[in-house]
TrEMBL record:
Residues 104-431 form the Enoyl reductase (ER) domain. SUPFAM superfamilies: GroES-like, NAD(P)-binding Rossmann-fold domains. GO terms for molecular function: oxidoreductase activity. This is Enoyl reductase (ER) domain-containing protein. The lineage of its organism: Eukaryota, Metazoa, Chordata, Craniata, Vertebrata. The keyword Oxidoreductase applies. It comes from Etheostoma spectabile (orangethroat darter). Residues 434-444, 451-474 have a biased composition (Basic and acidic residues). Keywords: Oxidoreductase. GO terms for biological process: negative regulation of mitochondrial fusion. Residues 55-90, 431-474 are annotated as: Disordered. SMART domains: PKS_ER (SM00829). InterPro entries: ADH-like_N, ER, GroES-like_sf, NAD(P)-bd_dom_sf, SV-ATPase_mito-regulator. GO terms for cellular component: mitochondrial outer membrane.
Length: 474
């Protein structure tokens, strides 16, 4: 302390360095003393955690006890079985999930097997056995650390899916065990079982497949709200949609056909033009070989009424220039930022630098509207629920039908990411939680699966510690 006081008074930095050196030596001494006496204090530390300190002789005895049923306890027994012995013997729940373990490339998404106690449902919740999940561009951004709504890793990604209800909590009136449902969630869908609010589940039409159920929520909610809630699409209008062969692109195209005399311009690579034209795009444009602004001006010199922009950067500026007076530009993504497996700071900087910049005066003089849309920031569950019911009604009428590009089992998540990131998909990419049986038959020695066991038995059983780990395929 005298050294600190002296350095403060004299302003001499040498005294500060001497003090820091003494402090370092003191901490080193404390650390060595702690290490020497750690064994003597281990019992005290464990007692603080509420457990007994096991000795080497006690370990085999404890492993034997793992096979015996644990004592009945209110917190461990399921509600429906009370305190009966059968409740204590209930098997833990084991399920597969895709976990984002860190930000970066495809290898950061890993297949894990988790084991935990049977979930205890709160009022208004349901337990869903997931059959199919949707892959969205938001997951590509999330893997690179660019999606702000995704919790920090490790985290299970996925915002939409479909499945079968296996259990219902109290106060759930309009859902029952066995119901086929579409599910929405901010994250956590990429796993075999999921506990979610019953308000975020929607009954599936009988003729709808699980793959279609997983393909509808994010893409069609986004498309419907942009077209009808924001842009007020009416007969005789024209719409430009980029990435027209993607999930949102097909949704926009189909919804535009529910309104008479709507012209749809869609950008996509030339190999996809025939497909998107059959799907309803009036004028397909190859953005790789042609300037889509010039191509649209040749067909419609005055421009278009609505531009839906998932790209950002310079494309937003082009979209604004293409608007007719009283037209609407809606920005709902920043795909130009994603140019590789990992975060590309140069692409991000370029996109940000070329971003559209406006003043209110310029908006007034141009008579144009600029909007932003992000489904994740809409907290109104009633609005989302009403829109979902409208979409399911349109599906029942045969006016909309998701196009499934491809389905990948959880083991093939890397291939799914590659297909979407390299813009190869035509329609929706789907993930299937169920193990790929053909692959198991073909490979006598499959890649190990990463096992994240939550039960006490898994922690103590050395055999389970060496259980297989399956990472996402490279």
């Amino acid at each position: 302390l005298s050294l600190v006081e002296r350095s403060a008074q004299t302003g001499n930095p040498a005294d500060c360095f001497i003090f820091l050196g003494c402090l370092f030596v003191g901490y080193a001494h404390i650390g060595s003393t702690t290490a020497e006496n750690l064994e003597g204090h281990s019992q005290q530390v464990v007692i603080m955690s509420g457990e007994e300190a096991p000795t080497l002789q006690q370990q085999p005895e404890q492993e034997k006890k793992l096979d015996e049923p644990p004592p009945a306890a209110a917190s461990d027994s399921p509600r429906e079985s009370g305190s009966s012995p059968a409740a204590a013997e209930e098997k833990p729940l084991s399920f597969r999930s895709l976990v984002l373990t860190g930000y970066g490339g495809y290898d950061k998404v890993k297949l894990q097997v988790k084991t935990q106690k049977q979930p205890q449902l709160e009022a208004g919740e349901v337990l869903v056995r997931v059959k199919a999940c949707g892959l969205n561009f938001a997951e590509l951004l999330g893997r690179q650390g660019l999606y702000e709504l995704l919790p920090a890793p490790p985290v299970v990604m996925g915002m939409e899916g479909s499945g079968v209800i296996e259990a219902v909590g109290e106060d759930v009136k309009d859902r029952k065990v066995g119901d086929r449902v579409i599910v929405l969630s901010r994250s956590g869908m990429w796993q075999e079982v999921l506990v979610v609010s019953a308000n975020l589940t929607f009954p599936m039409p009988e003729q709808m497949s699980f793959e279609e159920g997983a393909a509808i929520p994010i893409n069609y909610l986004t498309a419907y709200m942009m077209l009808f809630e924001m842009a007020n699409l009416r007969p005789g209008k024209s719409v430009l949609i980029h990435m027209a062969a993607g999930g949102v692109g097909f949704a926009v195209t189909q919804l535009c056909q529910t309104v008479p005399d709507v012209t749809v311009f869609g950008t996509a690579s030339a190999s996809k033009h025939e497909t998107i034209a059959q799907g309803g795009v009036t004028h397909p444009i190859d953005y790789r070989t042609k300037d889509y602004v010039e191509e649209i001006r040749k067909i419609s010199p005055k421009g278009v009424d609505i531009v839906l922009d998932p790209l950002g950067g310079s494309d937003t500026q082009k979209g604004f220039s293409l608007l007719k007076p009283l037209g609407t530009l809606i920005v709902f993504g920043a795909a130009n930022c994603v140019t590789g497996q990992k975060k590309n700071l140069l692409a991000m900087a370029k996109t940000w630098y070329n971003q559209l910049s406006l003043t209110t005066l310029k908006l007034m003089q141009s008579n144009k509207a600029v909007c932003g849309f992000h489904l994740g920031y809409i907290p109104d569950e009633q609005l989302i629920g009403r829109t979902m019911l409208k979409l399911l009604e349109l599906y029942g009428q045969g006016k909309i039908k998701p196009r499934i590009d491809s389905c990948y089992h959880f083991e093939e998540v890397t291939d799914a990411f590659k297909r979407m990131q390299e813009r190869q998909n035509i329609g929706k990419v789907i993930l299937l939680p169920e193990a790929k049986k053909e692959e198991e038959k073909q490979k006598p020695s499959p890649e190990p699966v990463e096992n994240v066991e939550k039960t006490e038995a898994a922690v103590n059983d050395k055999k389970k510690e060496t259980t297989e780990e399956v990472k996402s395929e490279d």
